[in-house]
Amino acid sequence: MQALVYKGEGQLALEDHPVPQLQEPTDAIVKVVYTTICGTDLHIMHGDVPTVTPGRILGHEGVGIVQEPGAAVSRFKKGDHVLINCITSCATCEYCRRGMYSHCTQGGWILGNTLDGTQAEYVRIPQADSSLHHVPQGVDEKALVMFSDIFPTGLECGVLNSKVQPGSSVAIVGAGPVGLAALMTSKLYSPSTIIVIDRDPKRLEIAKKLGANHIINSGETSAEEAVMKLTNKVGCDAVIEAVGVAATLEMAQDLVAPGGTIANVGVHGTSCTLKIEKLWDRNMSLTTRLVDTVTTPMLLKLFAAGGIEPGKLITHELPFKEMEKAYSTFKAAAEHEALKMLITI
Ligand code: NAD
Ligand code: ZN
After folding, report:
1. Any signal peptide, and if so, which residues (predicted)?
2. What are the pLDDT digits (tens) for 2-32?
3. Residue 215 phi/psi, 5° resolution?
């Protein structure tokens, strides 16, 4: 089969690779139909993710068709259309029972990172019964790829962790795919206002189209001053950091209202300053977590009912044979108009 393989810092290759085989009776082999590229894949390509070693097939997002279920797989049969979670989970260990699938003790593999991923014609999915989801009848399977990672991330790590409620004021720092997924899922909770902050005017325009009440270009103006002006000098009840640099986590601490909550979603390669005196003095909370994909079944029901439009984040479509080109296009375009690239295999 053809697979996109990490060859070491800065190098990727679309090359022939053996088709994965069942290793455990709980595995399933899935034929991948749609995949996409994530900002994390770019970090991997640049050699910034030490858990990924040369030879790894990349990709942690995908929709496909079950090719071969293992003997112990009971929820799926050959031919079933499935959404693939970005992480695998057993659903029965102590952490899984607490909803912390990312800490599953029976593997807890991250596709395209600690396990071969979805940028390939076939992928082996361990613990298939709890790591795959049936595709609801009649939904757009292309759009569904957004549910492998970025929508559960925006919802779980951003919206739920920052405790968005009806009437909340929400600030989202970062209008990349994750920040925009947080924007779209925060609207499910009827906040009174959503302010999106970025320094890329094109991404801010997209945020506005997706329902942000206010946009702030922090490259041109002080986000703190602008947010205080919009909130009668109070700040926001919920602040979602969806960038992953020290400066934006520090900014988030200046935007939150007394009693409010900051949800750090970004993956920070470096230490960040905690303004602990400010957090303490104003009863602020700071939360952070890995995505667990526990909300995916709810998102699937919502999508099937027409309550959310994840396909709005797809800006480019390419065939799998142009996968190497897709990376360079995505890399070049990441600072401009590209959000999510849909790859058809
Ligand atoms: P992205 O790089 O596509 O988007 C980041 C956005 O932040 C861009 O629009 C960029 O213009 C903006 N930005 C960058 N620097 C800024 C600054 N100083 N001020 C204001 N805006 C700035 O990233 P993404 O794919 O949307 O992911 C966002 C973050 O979420 C990343 O750190 C990613 O690693 C992380 N993530 C976390 C989890 C988790 O489990 N917690 C899962 C997936 C992704
Ligand atoms: Zn588990």
Report:
1. none
2. 999 999 998 999 999 999 999 999 999 999 9
3. -125, 145
Ligand 1, CB within 6 Å, residue ranges: 38-40, 149, 153, 157, 174-179, 197-200, 203, 218, 242-245, 247-248, 265-267, 290-291
* ipTM of the complex model: 0.98
pLDDT digits (tens, 9 = 90+) for 60-102: 999 999 999 999 999 999 999 999 999 999 999 999 999 999 9
Distance 194 CA to ligand 1 centre (A): 18
Please report the domains of the chain, with CATH numbers, ordered by start residue.
2-149+292-344 (3.90.180.10), 151-288 (3.40.50.720)
Contact by Cβ (8 Å): 268, 290: no
DSSP codes joined into one string, 304-329? HTT---GGGGEEEEEEGGGHHHHHHH
CA 99 / ligand 2 centre spacing (Å): 9
